[in-house]
Specification:
The chain is of the alpha/beta class and about 270 residues long. It has a single domain, classed as NAD(P)-binding Rossmann-like Domain (Rossmann fold). About 45% of the residues lie in helices and about 15% in strands. It is built from nine helices and seven strands. It has helices at about 20-30, 45-55, 70-85, 110-140, 160-180, 200-205, 205-215, 225-235, 265-270, and strands spanning about 10-15, 35-40, 60-65, 90-95, 145-150, 185-195, 245-250. The chain has a seven-stranded parallel β-sheet, with helices on both faces. Strand 4 (about 90-95), helix 4 and strand 5 (about 145-150) form a beta-alpha-beta unit. The longest helix is centred in the middle third of the chain and has 28 residues, at about 110-140. It starts with 11 loop residues before the first strand and ends with a helix. The relative contact order is 0.14. The mean pLDDT is about 95. The structure holds nicotinamide-adenine-dinucleotide.
């Protein structure tokens, strides 16, 4: 039986980037708590796969192919969810990262990295938050929005400057939107992970580098997608009922040490 203290049973939860990684894990976790999950991804086949997995386990889910950096597509997403489920209770702004941009210091940085990082992380968060908030306010839903930032937004992010700046923006915007939506009873919070042990990390980083990253973390292991999913669930649920405008570090204690954040292999060399 789902625990009533969590309060997510039957709630409509929209998760962006639900096709893989953290979003996929979050979709599974919310479904396990009885939520109706809307799996959103620019890759429609991945979104379908996430929704089918939940349905196969007896849960309720729908898939929507959406590029969350495009205003008209985000509007269509909100309309599709409202038509199917009648409300949006929780919105999870998980899409982020910086695509295929080449890490570089400011001396060599290509403007396309800047534009891509701001679009993927900040613009998407703004567009979806606005759509979620409007849907909630119009229907009197006292919902929750959870943004996903990164430890890169907390400290200098050498060679990944645009990504760090965008994630710092996500954390700051979380506070502003929380203040703006508080009178409507809508909570807005943020989860900021350290490097996550996603299949993508496994494929792109050597085992040596992953071990080095794990060793820098006080809990002596990498952050798993499930760790982040549980932090997101906490911020979306009744367990955090009096918490708003906050960023929860999901980093195994890394941010409380003087260690620098573990670096991706392709961004590490400038650190010496
Ligand atoms: N992976 C890490 O090490 C790490 C560390 C800290 C923070 N984060 C943050 O966690 C979040 C999830 O990271 P991840 O590594 O699981 O994600 P990911 O890069 O693996 O992508 C997740 C999904 O997002 C989809 N997607 C990408 N662009 C999209 C768009 N414009 N519209 C809709 N869907 C889109 C992809 O198709 C993919 O299925 C991101 O915000 C990321 O910045 C990740």
């Amino acid at each position: 039986m789902a625990s009533s203290i969590i309060g997510l049973e039957g709630k409509v939860v929209v998760i962006t980037g639900a096709g893989q990684g953290v979003g996929r894990s979050a979709a599974r976790t919310f479904a396990q708590e009885g939520a109706k999950v809307v799996a959103v991804d620019v890759d429609g086949a991945l979104a379908e796969e996430a929704a089918r997995e939940i349905q196969a386990a007896g849960g309720e889910a729908m898939a929507v192919a959406t590029d969350v950096t495009k205003a008209d597509e985000v509007e269509a997403l909100a309309a599709a969810v409202l038509e199917r489920f009648g409300a949006i209770d929780v919105g999870v702004n998980n899409v982020g990262n910086f695509g295929r941009s080449t890490p570089a210091t400011i001396l060599d940085l290509d403007i396309s990295f800047w534009e891509n990082a701001i679009s993927q992380n900040l613009r998407s968060t703004f567009l979806c938050s606005q759509a979620f908030a409007r849907a909630m306010v119009q229907r009197g839903v006292r919902g929750a929005i959870v943004n996903v930032a990164s430890m890169s937004g907390l400290r200098a992010s050498v060679r990944l400057g645009p990504y760090g700046a965008a994630k710092a923006g996500v954390m700051h915007y979380t506070q502003t939107v929380a203040a703006e939506l508080a009178p409507h009873g809508i909570r807005v919070n943020c989860v900021a992970p350290a490097s996550i042990n996603t299949p993508r990390a496994q494929a792109s980083q050597s085992q040596e580098r992953l071990q080095e990253m794990a060793n820098a973390i006080p809990l002596k292991r990498l952050c798993e997608p499930e760790d982040v999913a549980k932090a997101i669930l906490f911020m979306a649920s009744d367990l955090s009922s009096f918490i708003t405008g906050q960023t929860l570090m999901c980093d195994g204690g890394l941010s409380i040490t003087s260690a620098r954040p573990p670096m991706r292999e392709d961004a590490a060399e400038a650190r010496g």
